[in-house]
Structures are given as C-alpha cells and as structure tokens.
Write a structure and sequence with these properties.
Order of helices and strands: EEHEHEEHEEHHEHEHHHH
Shape: globular
Distance between the termini: 26 Å
Structural class: alpha/beta
Number of helices: 10
Largest sheet: 6 strands, mixed
Strand content: 5-15%
Helix content: 40-55%
Number of strands: 9
Length: about 260
C-alpha cells in the first residue's frame, strides 16, 4: 500500500488494479501529499506485471472535490508553490496512466470537481452513481483548468460544449453527464462499487495491448491529417499481428468460439 491519503492494490488473479483517494473528511481534495501519494500509487500499479484494468475511485461521499484550496493560503507566492508541487506529481501520474495499455475506469460517487473532474475526463470509461455531479469549478477561483482538463474535455465534448461548461460553470448531474458523453454508465448508488468492479473485471479480460493502441490512435487522430493517420493505423495493426492476443482472436474466430485473451 502507499501512503494513507491514497490506497492502491493489484488483484493479480483478475489483472485489476485499484487506486482509491482516501481523504473522505475533505471530500478527497488534493493537497501536495495526496498528489505525491497518487503518483506513487500510479507508478506502483503501472509497474506491476499483468495489470489489464485500472479502477480509480474516492472513499466516502465524493470522488475528488478538486484541489485542497485551504493549502493555498492567502499569499499568492505560497499558492503558486503549492500548485506547482501538486502538478509536479499529477502530471507524470496522468501521463503514466495514459501511456499504460490498461484501460482506466473512474468510479464516481458524489462530486467530481476541478482536478477531480480532470481525472474523470482522463479515464477511458466512467461509471457513476445517480447522485454524481460534475463541475469545472476553476472559474470560481478565477483560474484556468489544469491536470489535462482542456485536452480531454475538448476531445470528448467539442470546443463549443467545453466553453459552455467553463464559462457558465453549470454542474452536470449524472444523466446530463452521460448525455454529454462524459459518463459511460449510471447506476444506483448501492450498486456502484459492485458494478464498477464487474466492469473492471470485464475490461481486464479483453485484448489489453489493442486497447492501448486504440487510445494512441484516438489521440493522434486529433493532430494528424488523414494520410498520416491511415499509416499510423496500418503500423499499429501490423504490430498487433505479432501479438498473442491477435493469434488467439483469429483462432477463436475460425473455431467459432469466444476468445480468451491473455493481454499479451
């Protein structure tokens, strides 16, 4: 386990890693020690062999209610120091999660605001309870978003909707977030933990390397012209042909059975 502010675990049998923010008394707000503990958890999880799904959640009645504003103080110099220290840990953590082939699943109960919303946006799949609320929140501080919010949000909802969410600062409920494309599944509150684990287990049984390749292709599609993207797709497909999961997929198709992927 990592420091108490963030808990982590790897279920080697299922191939599922869990990372849990564990400051329920402050709605899992992120201060410097929490950000550093999150980075340590991500590093441990992504270095663990056999991880095929990563499930991120928050203990208590909120996912993550943003940065811990109380740590900023009234001195701009102190606030700058704190924010830089938080981002020095959050940035490599977010990059490590994005670069790992295992899909990231966010299990959201209650509020996901500010940096918490950024974490949700960075996830590949999001499952939330009916009481979940998603809030940009940065404009209330007179600040711009961080932790990748602008990169992920514009890709998921488009620039017009992203601007609307930031400027109007309207909280999205679970149903609205699903309609906007931020959430994959909404479930009753008492079923969230069970269904999130079931979703992680299902994802962990899939072709993990292909999932990672899909993410890379989706990211590059926003930057490359069509000709370059076509060749990038070709290169990754040819790479997949050499993997065990591709051979299993082809064999299963020819034998008319369900494939059993190993993530290799």
């Amino acid at each position: 386990m990592s420091a108490q502010a963030v808990l982590w675990n790897v279920d080697e049998e299922r191939g599922v890693a869990t990372i849990t923010f564990n400051r329920p008394e402050v709605l899992n707000a992120v201060d410097v020690p929490t950000a550093q503990a999150f980075l340590a958890a991500v590093q441990a999880v992504t270095a663990s062999p056999g991880v095929r799904a990563i499930l991120i959640s928050g203990e208590g009645r909120a996912f993550v209610a943003g940065g811990d504003i109380s740590a900023f103080g009234s001195d701009p110099g102190q606030a700058a120091q704190v924010v830089n220290a938080i981002l020095d840990a959050m940035h490599p953590a977010l990059l490590a999660l994005r670069e790992h082939p295992a899909p990231v699943i966010a299990s959201v109960r209650g509020a996901a605001a500010g940096a918490g919303l950024s974490l949700v946006l960075s996830a590949d799949l999001v499952i939330c309870d009916e009481g979940a609320r998603f809030v940009i929140a940065y404009d209330r501080l007179g600040a711009t978003p961080d932790c990748g919010a602008t990169w992920f949000l514009a890709r998921k909802v488009g620039r017009t909707k992203a601007t609307e969410l930031f400027v109007l600062s309207e909280a999205l409920g679970a149903a609205e977030a699903k309609a906007a494309g931020l959430v994959s599944k909404v479930v009753p509150s008492d079923e969230l933990a069970t269904q999130a684990e079931a979703l992680a287990s299902k994802v962990a049984r899939g072709p993990t390397l292909a999932y990672g390749g899909f993410n890379r292709l989706m990211d590059s599609a926003m930057e490359l012209d069509l000709a370059d993207q076509l060749e990038t797709e070709r290169a990754l497909f040819m790479d997949m042909i050499g993997k065990a999961d591709f051979r299993e997929g082809v064999s299963a198709f020819l034998e008319k059975r369900k494939p059993v992927f190993s993530g290799a």
